[in-house]
Amino acid sequence: MVSPRLYCDRRLGGAKRWVLGSEGALPRVPDEVLESVVFLCVDETHHGKKRKVAHGTALLVTVAEPAMLGPSDEHFYLVTAKHNLAAARRLKMAGKTDGLYARVNTKAGGSEWVDLPLGNEWIDAPNPAADVTVLRFPPRAGVEIFAQAFPSEHIIKGASARAHGIGAGDDLFVVGLFTSRAGTERNLPIVRSGILSCMPHEMIPDPYGAYDAYLVEVLSLGGLSGSPVYLYRDSPAWEVGDQPVRRYELHLLGVIRGHWDELLLKNRRKGRVVSPMAAIAYNKDDLAALNKGIAMVTPGDDILAALHTDELVTERHEHMRRSIELASGTLDSAPDATETPTPGSAPAIARPSETPKR
Questions:
Q1: Minimum mean pLDDT among 9-23, 95-109, 154-168, 284-298: which range?
Q2: Quick one: pLDDT band at residue 281, thresholds 50, 70, 90?
Q3: What CA–CA distance (Å, rounded) separates 269 from 281?
Q4: Calpha distance 179→169 (Å, rounded)
Q5: pLDDT tens-place string over residues 203-245
Q6: Distance between CA 210 and CA 212 in Å, rounded?
Q7: One CATH from 3.30.465.10, 2.60.120.340, 3.30.565.10, 2.40.10.120 for 5-316
Q8: CA 249, CA 231: separation in Å to the nearest integer?
Q9: Short-list 294, 292, 299, CA closest to 194
Q10: Does residue 100 contact residue 85 with C-beta atoms inside 8 Å?
Q11: Nearest of 163, 157, 134, 156 to residue 61 by alpha carbon
Q12: Confidence check: pLDDT of 337 > 80
């Protein structure tokens, strides 16, 4: 039996993390990546009984802000496709669900439900056509986070993608919900692999404007909307002493937006391919959709734009200011001070010719 050893695991964006175990115990997809996704759920009624059913995926990320005292402050956010939230809002307005929930795995091996708001607590990317929205998580105090979080500094930006030679043919994988087997006691995310098919050279038209997207060869299905897409980068992954054992890093490319379907006639010349323009002439019952196997991925730039909107940046700075105030302590005033000193200013001392206030 091989004794466990200490390994330096660099797979998550190249950051060093020490792991005690054997080389074979280090999975190709780190557990932290699997535990960074949560399932988005709504209420459904079956045979007169209401239950929560998973319909989409969200990613838990952290944004680190430099702190004047001690280590950096980490702020936690949920990231998902904006249309997941829009669907839950429509169900709520129609009276078909009581709300939106996140199911988060616990360290004890089970899961926990977290109520999510449906209002303007969610912050969208500045581009209205970008299919991404973020929420401070947990949305209320007192909710303990058990899931792992992916560091936002390892999200790929368009400029860095070009600088590092990222392009068509690079290997990638998706982690998210498989609705046919979501798990009963805890979230059981699946991993789907593929390649980067096309860079976002041209924007894609949308009713809300136009958006950038990576095209990836992955069979995207319902439930994977909002799922993180990770890209492999060639680099030392973990070391035994000074010797690299594996050579790859994982960086977040973006989140799944959707896919394209091939429209086929079900009736009258069954199986004939119909163009989107010609499909207008047919009823929906006459058409069947065949997944083309190409998915759209909202780029990391849009995720970062949402995480760094003025509202969230101001909120993080205010949190840091309050933390500094609490850590700085309370100034002691002299008994003969003429006024209450303010933090950062020298106390006002009564002059000899003045009568101190009592």
A1: 9-23
A2: low
A3: 15
A4: 28
A5: 998 888 899 999 999 887 888 999 999 987 765 444 555 555 5
A6: 7
A7: 2.40.10.120
A8: 8
A9: 294
A10: yes
A11: 134
A12: no
- Is beta strand 49-65 parallel, antiparallel or unpaired with respect to 150-151? parallel
Residue 180 CA: distances (Å) to CA of 103, 183, 222, 261, 303: 16, 9, 10, 20, 28
Q: 271 — alpha (psi -120 to 50), left (phi > 0) or beta?
A: left
Tokens of 240: 């035994």
Over 70: is that where the pLDDT of 288 sits? Answer: no
The per-residue b/e assignment along 86-125, b for 16 or more CB within 10 angstroms, e otherwise, is ebbeebbeeeebeebbbbbbeeeeebbebebebeeebbbb
What is the pLDDT averaged over residues 131-149? 78
Q: Whole-angstrom Cα distance, residue 45 to residue 48?
A: 6
> What is the rounded average pLDDT for all residues in the chain?
79
- Per domain, the residue ranges of the chain are 5-316
Joined tokens for residue 292: 């083309």
Nearest to 196 by CA among 178, 177, 213, 212: 213
How many residues are present in the chain? 358
C-alpha to C-alpha distance for 221 and 225, rounded to whole angstroms? 8
Token digits of residue 194:
């593929």
Max mean pLDDT range (132-141, 142-151, 230-239): 132-141
Structure tokens of 6?
Answer: 């200490």
Which is higher by pLDDT, 142 or 112?
112
Instruction: Please state, in angstroms and rounded to a whole number, the distance separating the CA atoms of residues 90 and 100.
Output: 11
- Local confidence band at 321 (pLDDT 50, 70, 90 cut-offs): confident
Residue 344: pLDDT over 50: no
**Cis geometry, peptide bond prior to residue 236 (ω within 30 degrees of 0):** no
